[in-house]
Amino acid sequence: MREITIKKDRKIGQGNPAYIIVDVAANHNGNLETAKELIRKAAQAGVDAVKFQTYTADQMYSKKAPQFSRDPMKPYDLIKKVEHPRSWLPVLADCAAENGVDFLSSPFDYEAVDLLQDVGVPLFKVASLEIVDLEFLKYIAQKGKPVIISTGMCNMAEIEEAVDTILSAGNENIVLLHCNTSYPTPIHIVNLNAMNTMEQAFKLPVGFSDHTLGWHIPLAAVAKGACVIEKHFTLNRKQEGPDHGFSIEPQELKIMVDQIRDIESAMGTGIKKVSQEEMENYEKGRRSLVANMAIPKGTRISREMVTTKRPGFGIKPNLIDIVIGREAKVDIDEDDILTWEMIK
Q1: Which alpha helices (DSSP H) does 31-107 contain, by range?
Q2: Superfamily of domain 4-267
Q3: Distance of CA 275 to the CA centre of its chain
Q4: What predicted TM-score, i.e. pTM, was given to this entire model?
Q5: Closest CA to 173 of 133, 204, 202
Q6: Which pLDDT tens digit goes with each residue over 84-128?
Q7: Pick the CATH number of 276-342 from 3.10.180.10, 3.90.1210.10, 3.40.50.2300, 3.40.50.620
């Protein structure tokens, strides 16, 4: 599996900490100060990046597009309502830099790509709905920055086309995100095993973009090897708007980030051995051979004279057959822990 470099001190891929992105989406409510507060709260929780979405209704939807069953408004009208001014981009990028997190935004048109390139995003994140627009993907890839692609609703052939398009532009820095585009996502359709399928097929780093309620599914994804986690983020789920209801709140985000880092720490090296922290239990909690009765010096040791008890710093129990039949070199009291110095 390839490893990609986002910047000098940050890589994405196996053996590196999961790159945690929060997606603000429309949860800024059209208010720049709210957008900045979301950046600050996300940074305090310990995420790597805060992502917005750069779109306009005029370039995203036909005014004649039918409404989705989940929304009372037509798509064009909804997007027109929640799109943010593009003049925000440098302001948000500066705010992210001041708070020590990466600024990202998913572009949904060519001008958005250029603007994000100008403000210095470290990578481009492509939404699932854009993956079939191959000319658009190629334009993004030609900017020369890493590309993270969500793959909601995609079959393997569509993912392959997208990957080949980016590779054809001379860009090999690709990360795939398994994703479900149902909001919120029912647990039974998550299919985390698809991450393994994608990783084996494309030999690329694979992560998970989550739209489930709670944060237990992203934790499971990390345990399965997800190298990127993306999660929608809001200051308050009770606010009105298309994305608030399935987003995570600040105190929950902190818990999720901390638990992801705990899981990564717990994964370890894979080498099975006694740890330094276990040494006291190893020595005092395991059993060794112990005299079951007094054994005078010169006595030939029989089986009934020996039992096993804790601690474990005497002769190991699995060596009992070597001890039986030997002669006591010294007087051995009942309950003495047997050592090789005691026997001939």
Answers
A1: 32-45, 57-60, 75-82, 88-98
A2: Aldolase class I (3.20.20.70)
A3: 25
A4: 0.90
A5: 204
A6: 999 999 999 999 999 999 999 999 999 999 999 999 999 999 999
A7: 3.90.1210.10
